[in-house]
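#struct-help
A.M.: can someone run this one for me? Single chain, 288 residues.
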Amino acid sequence: MSGRPEGHAPMLALLLFVVAVQLLALIIMPEFVASGNRVFEDPESAANPILYLLLILGFTLFLLLALKLKQGWILSAVIMISIAASVYYVLATFMSPLLALLPTLAVLLLLRFYPEWYIVDAFGILVCAGISALFGVSMTPIPALLLLFILAVYDAISVYRTRHMVSLAEGVIGIKAPLLFVVPRSKGYSFRQDQQISGDGRKGAYFLGLGDAIIPTILVISASWAIEATKLLGISLPALGAMLGTYAGFLALMMTSREKPQAGLPFLNSGAVLGFLAGCLLAGVNPF
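D.P.: on it. Structure tokens below:
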């Protein structure tokens, strides 16, 4: 979900976050492939995106219930535990499990006691890249394409019809949960102190959900490891096409958004899929 930034600088910053996530995910992908760490046992199974959706629905339902019951501490605790697990799992791929505990604890302390926008953004890039790489190596392109389609539809419904994703976004912003990229509108903005919410986001900043960076990047990673194809700048053409398509979808999102929150995945996922297919065509490979 996204609001429209005024001027080019916020838009460029949000786009650069997505670019950074995808490049970092490509860098760490070989470690996940080499380690054999995967979320799903069979990367080719069409059931994988369904399981992913069920996981999202269950987590979202739990968070919404906590918000409705005004149990913010439960919401915050669950999010922080999920963050700790994600950070630890990624770090444990590159270092000993015991050693990975130290930076995981450091990240949690920073996010708990000093959740300023630049710390939240830096954390977001690292975690999005790790999650994207992990799920990307857990699916071949066909399940990944199915996942992008399902989640684009779900995002549109949850923002425009049921609006539960809007309520959830406002809730996680209110408790300073690090589940969004934050771009200040002006100098001196403090995410920790900002308490105002407007129709298109918060008055002092604009936001982009971490999922808007993670989901299209899953296809980028899947295309990179699962398809043998011609490379350009060290990136296979199908993966590069998915990346460029994501950026095109992002720019379309920024141009069409107005005063209300917008569903980002229909734009980003559509761009990633079209770019992926174009890359396959240029590489002369059949992804199906």
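A.M.: thanks! The two ends are 30 Å apart (CA to CA).
D.P.: also worth noting: The chain has one domain: 8-282.
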